[in-house]
């Protein structure tokens, strides 16, 4: 079996990281994989050990030339099917290229953004199967009229060997705090997300003043990058949360970190008050590291965060309830330990790499078997 994968993302996190995990697992299963991705993207190097990589210009939804470039690649590689992993043009233009070359198409849907029934009816007609990374996304697509027979849920996965808890006296705990200029007894609350509106940074900022007043040893790490980064920094500064105190304030912006397997287990808990979220790879990573999570009740998040079992949920935008849960968990190490252990167990049981690879492979085999019978 040969599969052509198309991933338009340039950074190696979220969906692109899932593609690398999938390519690695497919190679171990004997599948011949080919990857099309943008020139200079981080996934190109990461995937090279698991697939033949073709770097193609990918200019987004209006880059109609992508259809021709992918058609030429399909003719050269002659895959049994095409798997599209991202939007930004590849979901529609990639599907058109495959259809024009007579190759079946699988689309991974990683976001829960609603679409009109008219557009959904036109767009998803191009795909033979749609793999949703959460039941929440499948529910959204079903409500938009996408046929149930096309929908398969295969949750995203996390490497629970790389992402794992550490002991209270592990040297990384002190080292991380020293690198950030923090005292060894600092309590770390972390949020790892793109700086875009739907992730809920502003809800967290609104919740923090009272929480930090009651927990003066706590510091907040807002990890990531994105178009709203400068605005969120400015709002934190205006609220006296960043850059105002002698030590720079209780909210830190360390940027995009490549060392999350080392950093996350050194933290006490994660906040993720998202308003929309397909599933949330960062939440899986944090849970695998044994962190309890307080998050928004959105998209696929409730499939990871179970209230009272692995963390707590809030309604999107509810800063008051968010503050209540953060206040409680920062003050109760035994509860953090209990929830964190259950969070890791849930990830190990439901979001393994083996299950994710096997689920996608079953989709491929089912499509090819159906074709051979016709």
UniProtKB/TrEMBL annotation:
Domain Glycosyltransferase subfamily 4-like N-terminal, first and last residues per copy: 14-161
Cleavable signal peptide: none
Pfam families: Glyco_transf_4, Glycos_transf_1
Domain Glycosyl transferase family: 173-345
InterPro entries the record matches: Glyco_trans_1, Glyco_trans_4-like_N, Glycosyltransferase_grp1
SUPFAM superfamilies, per database record: UDP-Glycosyltransferase/glycogen phosphorylase
Gene Ontology molecular function, alphabetical: hexosyltransferase activity
Protein name: Glycosyltransferase
High-level lineage: Bacteria, Pseudomonadati, Pseudomonadota, Betaproteobacteria, Burkholderiales
